[in-house]
User: What shape does this take?
Amino acid sequence: QVQLVESGGGLVQPGGSLRLSCVASGFIFSNYYISWVRQAPGKGLEWVSRISSDGTITDYADSVKGRFTISRDNAKNTLYLQMNNLKSEDTAVYYCEKGSLRGQGTQVTVTS
Assistant: This one.
């Protein structure tokens, strides 16, 4: 079964940190670029970051650059997003995405 399963979201105060994970199954994970996208309440999907198949190339939206770090462990079929210095505007459901395939998402809420 081809799927992506995100985890690691939660409630955090501004300035705090979270690490999201995304476990892939049903396809050769190491062959693909994978992205993180997010959807804030009442808004559309926003691309956050992506990483090359071997992890050597990364790219970030300006809104998260310098605060978020994407990484992957191809041996574990797992994608990560380390989020530091979180802001209220980072509140959203976060999804990992490969082409048209997207997981169920994990909620991140940043509030004092």
Summary: The two ends are 39 Å apart (CA to CA). Residues 70 and 81 are 5 Å apart (CA to CA).
